[in-house]
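Model the whole thing, not chain by chain.
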Amino acid sequence: MSKREEVPKVNAGSMADIAFLLLIFFLVTTTIETDVGIDRIMPATTNTFKGKILERNIFRIEVNNKNELRVEEELVEIEDLKGIVVDFLDNGGAVREAPDFCDYCKGNRDVSSSDNPSKAIVSLTYTRETGYGMYITVQNELIAAYNKLRNRESQRLFQVNYSTLMEQYEHPGTSSVVKERLKERITQIQNLFPQKISEVKVE
Amino acid sequence: MSKFAKKKDGDVPAVSTASLPDIVFMLLFFFMTVTVMKDSTLKVENTLPNASETKKLEKKDRVIYIYVGKPTSQYEKVFGSEPKIQLNDKFAGPSEVGDYILQERAKKAQELQNVLTTALKVDKNANMGLISDIKQELRKVNALKVNYTTYEGDAFMNLNR
């Protein structure tokens, strides 16, 4: 008997073609999608606020149909908005004896501006013709202002950034025990600077 | 002597293509990992705005998408060049948003129905008029959690200046 014949090698020359075919299939049928965005919770239609709000606790932002930004009826540049909002929220204008005195505020303590961060309301007014890009930029700046203050307080109380707390909380690997503790801290910070943004559309 | 015979001049050896499949496979795996399957064909222009203070949209099964933008050139003749809403694969008016949300909500599992997020994928050149109509509709059906989907980036780039 002759020696057993060796198995012939499979030709791998067409492997590249097959891989290209697959690659092209994936290129056509898939997209690179973004899954980040600005989260908002809208108020329910039944939820209307009754009661008196002092004018000094309201921060009025207006964006008109030419995408011009007005803060308390004065034209401002969008780049300055964050700073102005921080000043307003962090003002803490209530006097030391008053019940809503803010002991963690580092603002100017101007009596004509907000009393306490928990009282401060940001009111955003826009028209039908306001651009969506502009709206997102304003929203982004507002959240940036809140986050800046929350980071500061979180650094003071827990020596860690608020954004880091949030990241840890949302991380899928975090255990529920740690989550509980993080949630406590997050709510504590959120209560110091609650986001109160009201939106009004004018015709 | 033949051992040291000089090679003929100009006889360049062929480049080995043995690693070509490996390179292509590498590319293939890259695309497989970073992309997702298209779920609906976009019929509107959809250049999202940029924002820096973003949050990640968690679990995909808890999200309902609404697209808004100018109809693409293919549909411009029929639907005009004003920004329109796209729900699934159809153009729709603001009044249909509420029904759509209720329909989509009913399709989801019972335990997810209360934790749904509505992702608004809106072209940055759209106007707030349409968006506020949508938001009004969403409030009517109690879909209060919204996410304005954006790209991660500098928010000041949204302004056409």
